[in-house]
Amino acid sequence: MSDSFVLHEELLKLQEKDYFIHNEVQITDINEKDLEGLLDDIVEKIVVSSSVITEPEIFDALRSNFNKLKPSVMSRILDTIISGLQSEVENTARDIDANDEETFPSHRESLEMYAFLLGWIINQAETKAASKNTSVTAGSSMGEESAVNARGSVSGRGKGKKIPKTSDSEGWNWPAQKIIALELIASILDLGINKIWTSIHERDTFVSVFTKPAYQMLENTANTRVAKIKLCAQTTIIQNLQYYEHLSEPMAEFLEVLANKFDHTQLAEEILIEISNKEFKAQDTTTPKSYSKFLFKFSELVPKLVLKHIGLLIKHLDSESYTMRCGILEVIGCLISHIANQEEQTEVSKNQVNGFFDVLEERFLDSHTYCRSKLLQVCLKLCDLKVKFPKRRQRLTDLVIRSLEDKSSTVRKNAIKLLTKLITTHPYGIMHGGELTINEWEERLHKADEELKAVLPPTELQGIEENQPEIVDEENKENDTSLLSIDRSNGNEGEPIVTNDVLTKLQLTKRFYADAVRFIHQIHTAIPTLCVLLASTNKAEVLEAIEFFVAAHTYKIEKASEGIKKMVHLIWTKDNSDEGKGIRKRLIDSYRTLYLTPDDSLTENENVDIMTKNLISLTFNATLAELTSLDLLLSTMMTEADGCISDNIIEKLWSVYATTRNISKVQRRGAIIVLGMLAKAKIEIISEKTDFLLKIGLGSLGKADLTLARYTCIALQRLAGSQAKNDSIRFPMTHLIFQRLQEIIEFPTKSHEWFAVAEQAINTIYLLGEHPDILCGNIIKKRTGLVFDIKPPSTRESSIDQDESILGSQETFTTHPIHLSQLLFIVGHVAIKQIVHLEVIEAEWKRRKVDSDSKDKARTVTKTAEDELDQIAGTTEDEFGEAVSHIREKELLFGSNSLLPIFGSMAVHICSNNKAYKDPTLQIAATLALSKFMCVSSEFCENNLQLLLTILERTTEPIIRSNIIIALGDMTVCFNNIIDENINYLYKRLADPDIMVKKNTLMVLTHLILNGMIKVKGQLGEMAKCLEDKDERISDLAKLFFTELASKDNAVYNNLPDIISNLSSGENAVNEDSFKEIMKFLFEFIEKDKQTENVVEKLCQRFKNLDDKRQWRDIAFCLSLLPYKSEKSFRKLVEGLQNFQNKLHEEAVYKYFVEIINKANSQKPQKPELKQIIDEFENRITELKS
Which Gene3D superfamilies does the entry mention (predicted)? Predict the structure, then answer.
């Protein structure tokens, strides 16, 4: 029969008008006695074996002519089917328990055939019952529909003959039999049918054979009054929820129809009670999820009914299954929404809401990440309600702020989203708009407090303040906050009498303002944490943080500017391929929204003015790092965001820069800073207005404001174009640009700002000039002549303002120290830029050589270029490179035709005689020049390295030490062999008392180590100390360093023993608390089992020769940090027992080994052999301890 009977296909055929039966028994051809005999024969066969149903003759006989049979015969057929199915269910259950898989196919076929017959006969019987009910009640819509859908034709042997309906009569007790049938269906669904039907589609088809008749019974309201039928229906629904997650919402909708349309709630209530009585384990996944979805959907549809039984359901908040806890949280959210949306708010409903909020607040401490996340999502929906629950919002905000530091990024993300929603839906905008400027609200609170004090005596006021009434919902609060007139007609003069309404209004107003102020302060406390989260590695978390700061800035929260400034650094993030979802894209959109979105209520010119002002304001008080990031952001916006920064805005920026009006310096500076940034993407912005730059920035205004001159030089550098794209251009040295740059360098001033201007001016000369070395040579010659022609100022001539003078006259000098400092700064920076210039020439020559070779023709260059190349006398790449190297090593600092040798000697002389040349600015400039000279030539570097290292050790100037550290990093890159022997001088600066020096040292070493320029030789312990540095920036940099180092050939693992020795013993050992924190961080990088085994072995061996109890404790603590996931790692510990058995009397050491045992025991699954080893080890150390 298996070849011809397929349940799914048979059910489809049954829907057709003419249903064909192969071996149909024609009732009209058989008398009643023969029919009885046929049934007797079938019953006997089924009694012998229930699987006989698979025989075609028996199966077809039982499904023949259902509508033409007498009720008594129908009843007997139904009894036969039920009896056979019951027997088959029992046989199947036994084989499932025995896991006899060979019998499963035969059971499956038999069950499907019985199910088909039972489902069909129930359908026929219910159709007749519905038709009869329809005729009695004059046709209910439900009965009519059932009658229409009833199938009344069955064809015999394909003849398609229509069979007329027979009337029901006595002899068939269908109500009693339907209960038996439903109970049998429930028992079938309790079977482990997943083993019988492995295919989801086939299993669903089998279950649908029973569920459809069950639903058909529930369509008849008479059936819902029968307790056992209702129980069976309840069981069916519960089974559907248990096995089929996708049926959760349809089941809820079905019960909603029963409750609302037919006013039948008892079935739904029984299901809620049954669900409340269920228990779920943490391992349960599918079933709790299905129930949770059902409860959530049902609470949305029929919240009153769920509210009635919430007292029973809420116990699932203590369930081990986090899915059920999540579902109950969603249900509570729906119930709060339901109560809040009711028109009439009673005391009972308020108490219910408060009770629900208490429950939600408790779940902020839920142990599972998903529950805490779901809780935040529920609260997010509650924020959109019209009723704002002002008292509860205060507590909720505190809890959300605490969740910002949750260990789970998912929770933190949802906490940020909720905090943003709390701002955008705050209830304090009804009186004064939505802005949350703290100063304005504090002023309003102070005013309200004064008004309240003015109408009450102090003693009465104190009592009132202690018993202030609850603030009413802001939806009902009046917009007019002006005080009503005070009635002075009664009472003594000077003692105002106020009505209760006025007094209540004043109290509520004060309370309203106090709540607003507290809310703003709450947001302020969260902002530092949110600034940290902007640097999170979780993309979704960062995106939500951006959204928060955009919202906070929109609502005028003052401290939001801190986050807006830090946001700009996200421009360096590399986005993935998700279009429109990247951090960079969102950052650009945010800045466009905040600063470049026009206001439709303003004119075009007014919008241009506002947007220009916004762009300039971005540069106010910005650090170098912020300006660097802003540079990339604005240039990217100029390139990618079409029309974002219009030509009108650019023109307005130029007008601000070039205006003759007396405007603040920061505005003019901001204008040129922004223009320079935009020109990085569009060079025409600068090239078309070069005359403005020379006239303003390098003219009289630039000389009066050297910072303006510096940013003008940076803007001019944009004219060079992009070297990466080979589109850079250079100007002849007769161009007016170089004349202005020379003037600004030679401008006589004692301001320290000159050094920054001179640096950028020299950079611009070397970037734009065809022969920058010629111009810079002339500048050095002229400056040298001016410096050494100046005589020491006499006492009478020293009437210069002391604030302007850098240092008094020094007898050993023939010049003022600031002038000599400027000269040394110029020659030092020119030396460095000359090296870069030589590299540019070399790269250009090689490029031309490649182009020439690729075209297979003679090299064609201009006469000027040929002259330069002829001087080098090189014809191949190697020869040219050697020539450039020779110039760098021998000519620049030692050549007879070079200007620099004399200044190298001068810098060495000044640095060597720091007692004679005491001026700090001069020492800084001389040391910086010496450091730059040492980067030029290895010979000069080797000759003066000890002098530089001595200065590093002895100088008290942090700036000098920082400059030397940075220079040593550059020298290591250039001349690795020279510096490598003295690398310890660098590591020593990690303990420098100055934060700036320590930070620069850590950054330099990080760069050198991670890029493989120096090898680590046991000095990582000094780097590890920075992990516990008091300065957060240094500790963060150290964490980043070790995280990157751990990804490079097991570097942390290889150096771990040396790090432990460095931190635990010796003069520079850290305290035990710091040691523990450092080790906790570093041991996270020991992940492989083999690494764990080796570390255990090495650490155990260390115990052998140690007498210091501090080191015992430290090593034992390190051993306790290892994971012990494998049996080998624990065996290594047992093998090392002989090395530390005599140290176990130390209480701390013994405690750490107990922790190791507990950790090993917690590993699941655990082999019996390992369990035995652990127990023996535990007994052994216990004996040794005692």
Answer: Leucine-rich Repeat Variant
